[in-house]
Amino acid sequence: MTVDVLSALPRLAQRLGGAEASLASAERLSGGASMETWAFGVEVLGVVRDYILRRRSAPFDPENSRSTSLAAEAALIRAVRAQGAPAPPLAHLCDAHDGLGEAHVTERIAGETLGRRIVTDPRFEAVRPRLARQCGEILAVIHATPPPSEAQLKTADFRVELGRYEDAYRSLGAERPVLELAFRYLKTAAPEPVDPVLLHGDFRNGNLMIAPSTGVAAVLDWELSHIGDPAEDLSWICVNSWRFGRPDMPVGGFGAYADLLAGYEAAGGRPVTLKRLRTWQALGSLKWGVMCLMMYQSWVGGTDASVERPMIGRRVSETEIDLINLMEAGL
Hints:
Distance between the termini: 50 Å
Largest sheet: 5 strands, antiparallel
CATH topology of the largest domain: Aminoglycoside 3'-phosphotransferase, Chain: A, domain 2
CATH class of the largest domain: Alpha Beta
Strand content: 15-25%
């Protein structure tokens, strides 16, 4: 069923602000195959409050999807905020009365999310040296959060993820020598499992709202949350693809490994060795390389005609360079 979001937002505005509320503004920010994001303002007695609507525009298949439902996202946001993690405050979990399908509303947090701006814009020069430690501290809080039972999160570990992405790679019929070597290498380098914790699942520069004066203002996009190894979250932000042209700054293009790990331990996180983090980082680069190949294949096969697919597909070569550097260094 097609949903006219703009027609539904005035009613949603009154649910948020009461009978005297009106819709002050509305703008679609992004849209993928299954998810939409809208920014909108609600005016009550001359005062405007800003919100973000996330809604699923295609049917959700929990059995075959890595992402969570938006209701699960809402539960996760409540849970991590209760522990002190900076997630955007949940304002409303939509129901049938709203006419928007599966959706939730959070308050809009001011700041910047574009990774390249965060690592280069002079506005963030003063706060950049603090960001890696802040990320470690925030991840320690997330990992200490009891997973909400209603979220029904999936569990993954290193060997399971490695096997899943190798299956995806083999299904493409690709022949990439560096990726072949990386699969073999990581099978022997796989770390021993540890007690699993709640993971954000996509903690990286680009999913962080950064304020120029204070640093990390909010952690966004909780749809890939799951249960797993703490090093998975700590490593994902270190994958070179999320450094935005600053390979010398391994944490998000703005910081050092030591600061990330120090912040994590200082906030109560279990100690994670640099080798364990870099082993997971190599898996992260390998996973992203396979994803790039999959995006390219979707364009070649005609299932997705967007120019973004082949552009991202070209980046598999970047991940191959990353993997060679990690393997040559012995991780």
